[in-house]
Prior knowledge:
The protein has helices at 21-31, 41-44, 63-75, 111-119, 139-157, 173-180, 223-240; strands spanning 2-7, 9-10, 18-19, 37-38, 53-59, 80-84, 123-126, 163-165, 185-191, 203-207.
Amino acid sequence: MRAILTYHSIDSSGSPISLDEGALRRHIAFLRSGKVAVVRLEELLSVPERRDAVALTFDDGFANFESVAWPLLRYQDFPVTLFVATQRVGLDNAWGGTAARDIPTLPLLGWDALRRMHKQGLTLGSHSRTHPRLTEVDDAALAAELDGSIADMERELGTRPTSFCYPYGDVDARVADAVRARFERACTTELAVLPPVPDAHRLPRLDAFYYRPPGRLESFGSGAFRRHLWLRATLRRLRSR
Ligand SMILES: [Zn+2]
């Protein structure tokens, strides 16, 4: 079984984007047990499906990524991809200038910190420029969000990002085509493990939010894990209708 794990903020608020440090430490302890391989996002699709493997992704680039998560992950030599909205770097996650309900407004990392961790081995991916709902912007704005984020990262980090992450997981055929023309792969917020033949530009992920209880991530690959995931995904689909 292959899967991409999604993390956002490591804090103790209990919000939908938050995982507390204790839960992250439990996840890391399980991942370092060797039962599941931790591979680069770029490599996950070439891992045979019969093997258990995960890739780690963090969205948005919260300041607590550098202060809490990165030291722990780096110590284990785990590859990590961090997705940042390049025009929000150094600001906060009140996307569009408005704070979201139930979600804390938190500081985002600046370029100095991103450059520092990039030199230490962190992979940076694009999360657009300003974190809009891409299905709701016109073609010109869509191109500007994608090309602009690439230009920002090339200028600030000296490398071109190869991975993209749709803000809010918001994607349709038009948006996916534009992303496919510019990036090698892209992550959604669809709650699932990778199917046998994944679409590289519609990769589902497992939100760490659902794997907070002790033992849940640790059951990776088992029937119980798949049943819990199926139930969660079904409930989420019903709720979004
Ligand atoms: Zn985001």
